[in-house]
Structure formats: structure tokens, C-alpha cells
Amino acid sequence: MNTIIKKPLITEKATMDSEMNNRFTFVVDHRSNKIEIKKAVENMYGVTVEAVRTMNYGGGKPSVKFTNKGIVEQRSSRYKKAVVTVAEGETIDLFTNV
């Protein structure tokens, strides 16, 4: 599997977006840029990518938890999400490898 694309993100909102607007959501490497993501999706799925939008999540302020062992600080894991718009008439079948 490609090192830039880690996995498809299959949520209720992402599934509706893929059915209605030809947009597919992936969890990608946090160091990758939009051009690398576009090339990786085109090579992996054989489609034409029109647009890529990215969002960074996590890694911010630590959350504090009070446990029986004391106070524990923990940061949320960092990841990057990419929403890829595919050309009209083309689609990506995310459920064939499941």
C-alpha cells in the first residue's frame, strides 16, 4: 500500500459526501502535501482528481485525566485528513478490499 494514503475514512458524513458529491475522504501522512496526495490517489485508484482539501487534527493541548494512579496528561494522536474530489462520472470503490 502507498505510504502517503494510510486508510479511507468511512463515516456517515464521508459516505454521504461520496454518494452525493463524488468526494472521498482519506487519512493521509501528516507530512504530505496536496500535490503528493493527488498523485497517490490517481495512481492507486486510477481516477482523475479535480481538487484536494486537507485538515490537520490532534497533537494540541494535552488532556488531563484523574485516575486512581494520579493525574495523567495525554495528548491526542495527530493525523491529517484529505477530502478528494473526483471527476464527474468516475468513482472509487472503497469496499472491495474489506
Write up this protein.
With 98 residues, the chain is an alpha+beta fold. The chain has one domain: Alpha-Beta Plaits (2-Layer Sandwich), CATH 3.30.70. Helix content is 22%, strand content 38%. It is built from 2 helices and 6 strands, in the order βαβαββββ. The strands form 2 sheets. The protein has a 4-stranded antiparallel β-sheet with strand order 1-2-6-3. Strands 4-5 form a two-stranded antiparallel sheet. The radius of gyration is 17 Å and the shape is elongated. The model has no long low-confidence stretch (mean pLDDT 90).
Q: How many strands?
A: 6
User: Strands of the biggest beta sheet: in what spatial order?
Assistant: 1-2-6-3
**Number of separate structural domains:** 1
Overall mean pLDDT stands at: 90
The coarse silhouette is: elongated
- CATH-derived topology: Alpha-Beta Plaits
As a whole number of angstroms, the C-alpha radius of gyration is: 17 Å
Helix percent band: 10-25%
**Amino- and carboxy-terminal Cα gap:** 14 Å
Overall SS class:
alpha+beta
